[in-house]
Amino acid sequence: MRCEKCGVDLGEEYTLCPLCGEKAADCEPVLQGFETAGYLRYDKSEAFIKPRFGHDFPQKFLLRAAWVLCPLLGIVSLFTSKALWVFGVPAVFAVLSAVYFLSALFEKGRLLHNGVSLLATAVSSAVFTLVALIANNGAKEIALSLAFSAALFIILFAIRPKKMTEQLKALFVL
What is the reported pLDDT for 148? Predict the structure, then answer.
């Protein structure tokens, strides 16, 4: 048996491809002399579940926008009030962390993509804290946003340890 769509050799016990659900063709396997490994059962109902916050939720876009907005706030603050840098950058990362945390609470599926975005926000806050230390301006406030992001990440890890562990394993290939 063989799946024509996936190009996968299947055992004789398969009538449907366990990977894509297509009908298995009665063909000779391409690779001879190998036992077929067991596949996970294909459940068509799970294949098309669209999560409320999934790939259509703009996790990467929001973080990229923050990476563009925060340096602009720093540049503008050079010519105007320092408050844009001192309070604007921490506010951006605090709001971003809260959005990722809340969306992770409602995220469906086996992995928490928003948890990774929350971790990336904490790392971004750390980078901007270093910049603020070098510039000797606003480091305390940005460090508070870093602490806020880290605390939300720890809380999310405590609430959903299995999903976060699986997500981190998938992300960092542990």
Answer: 92
Distance of alpha carbon 113 from alpha carbon 79, whole angstroms? 38
Q: Give the tens place of pLDDT for each residue, 38-58.
A: 666 656 665 555 555 444 456
| Long-range pairs, 39-42, Cβ under 8 A, ≥24 | 39/10, 39/14, 42/16, 42/17, 42/18
Instruction: State mean pLDDT over 136-159.
Output: 89
CA distance 14 to 23: 9
Mean pLDDT of 12-28: 81
Residue type, 56: D
Cα separation values, 155 from 52, 119, 172, Å: 21, 12, 20
How many Cβ atoms are within 10 Å of 151's Cβ, its own excluded? 13
Question: Tokens for 88?
Answer: 């604007």
Q: What is the largest CA-CA distance in the chain?
A: 74
Whether 121 and 100 have beta carbons less than 8 Å apart is answered as: yes
Structure tokens at 92: 């951006």
The pTM of the full predicted model, rounded to 2 decimals, is 0.61
Closest CA to 85 of 94, 93, 96, 76: 76
Predicted pLDDT of residue 55: 46
- SS3 of residue 3 by DSSP: strand
